[in-house]
């Protein structure tokens, strides 16, 4: 938004490196556990679990490691829209509303900021490959394609929404 003829400077949120290092350590622990299952051969179930865990969590560790090495902001908000590490660039004119969503699994929960888009198909046509691949799974869970996880951001999602409203006054926030 322009205040007195002066545009707001971008709001930049770096990667929450401490949290991401912890995620990397967790992925590596699961790789080690999977390797242990493979070596032990104590049962068919453990062997299968190890055979699935090693490549999956190994890939997770590689992706997390790449994010740590890239050293670029996780999220940048400016007067034109947002630029998110995973979602790419989304203009304010594409966003109908934003909301904080929560996914609960047993005793744990994960909070997201969902960008409710006017035309999700147009966004998906140019979205990064990972977003396109996870869109159908998100839809089955009741989410749109543009979800920002908050565990890699250094501030709570409410702070992000406040900054979004500073850059785009009148932005609809769904509860």
Give a short summary of the structure.
The chain is of the alpha+beta class. Helix content is 46%, strand content 25%.
Structure in words:
With 175 residues, this protein is α+β, with helices and mostly antiparallel strands. 46% of the residues lie in helices and 25% in strands. It has helices spanning 17-40, 44-70, 120-126, 129-140, 157-167; strands at 2-3, 6-7, 11-13, 75-77, 81-84, 88-91, 95-105, 108-117, 147-149, 173-174. The chain has a four-stranded antiparallel β-sheet, with helices on one face. Helix 1 packs antiparallel against helix 2. The longest helix is centred in the N-terminal third of the chain and has 27 residues, at 44-70. The radius of gyration is 19 Å and the shape is elongated. The mean pLDDT is 88.
């Amino acid at each position: 938004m322009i205040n007195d003829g002066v545009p707001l400077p971008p709001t930049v949120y770096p990667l929450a490196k401490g949290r991401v290092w912890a995620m990397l350590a967790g992925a590596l622990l699961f790789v080690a556990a999977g390797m242990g299952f493979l070596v032990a051969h104590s049962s068919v179930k453990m062997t299968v679990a190890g055979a699935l865990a090693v490549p999956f969590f190994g890939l997770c560790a590689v992706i997390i490691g790449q994010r740590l090495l890239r050293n670029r902001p996780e999220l940048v908000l400016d007067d034109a829209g947002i630029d998110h590490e995973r979602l790419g660039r989304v203009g304010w004119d594409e966003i109908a509303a934003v909301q904080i969503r929560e996914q609960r699994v047993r005793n744990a929960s994960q909070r997201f900021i969902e960008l409710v888009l006017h035309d999700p198909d147009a966004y998906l046509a140019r979205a990064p490959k990972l977003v396109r691949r996870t869109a159908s799974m998100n839809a089955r869970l009741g989410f749109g394609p543009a979800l920002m996880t908050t565990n890699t951001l250094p501030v709570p999602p409410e702070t992000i929404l406040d900054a979004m409203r500073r850059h785009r006054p009148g932005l609809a926030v769904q509860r």
